[in-house]
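REVIEWER CHECKLIST
Item 1: Sequence provided? yes
Item 2: Single chain? yes
Item 3: Sequence as submitted:
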Amino acid sequence: MASVFPGMNPYLEHPDLFPGLHHWLIIEIARFLSPQLRPKYRVAVEVRMYETADNPSITVGIPDVMVTTRQHNSDADGTNVAVATPTSKPVQVTVPTPITVKEGYLEVKEVGTEQLITTIEILSPTNKRPVKGRKAYEKKREKVLRSQTNLVEIDFLRKGEPMPMFGDHIASDYRILVCRGNRRPLADLYAFNLRDVIPAFPLPLRPGDNEPVIDLQILLNEIYDVSGYDLVVDYRQEPVPPLSAADTIWADQLLREQGLR
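Item 4: Structure as written out by the authors:
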């Protein structure tokens, strides 16, 4: 069963579902590209790892300091010192526990030389929040942008701060950035919204090479079917994160037409 939405399915942005979708997209893009790039290039699935305690699901509890009584004791030189009496029962708190985050991405490398030609990134929720995950990704992004490596950056998340770029005055739900190493600082931005079909784009390679066109809409529909998302998504509920007022009305009508509400 294909997704009922014409483009990106907003229900797949749910924090419980998007990590799985992220892995599916990485693998399916690699599977699609590999036979088209052989024998000159190969597609490598890479993993970026870092430790962070910046988990939004973790709340650090800092209880107020409570002084129930004060006693005036005299120390050795006769100075009066205020001593706080501890509370009789402990207060339960939550501390930030470091966790290891693993983020997959793709690299297109030249066979023989192993030279990195193109990096393909799919942004995760941690990449779009002002926490350690964003800093780690921005550092990697800046390194790529300083080189001649091509960059493809896919943003299927409405929530969070988009990656920085200049000359972008388009407010959009989703984005695909295609940045060629030999054209920087110029890049191609595919901006689209919930109601739009996901645009196809060419994979940048070396100048003069035939570039395969990546149609993420086809891949997403195939993933939706194979993974059985229709069996776990409850379309009677509102998506997380919530839609705008106008898109809520549009989505409600669409789902009712499909018999899902």
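Item 5: Key structural point noted by reviewer: The helical segments are 18-37, 132-145, 216-227, 245-257.
Item 6: Recommendation: ____
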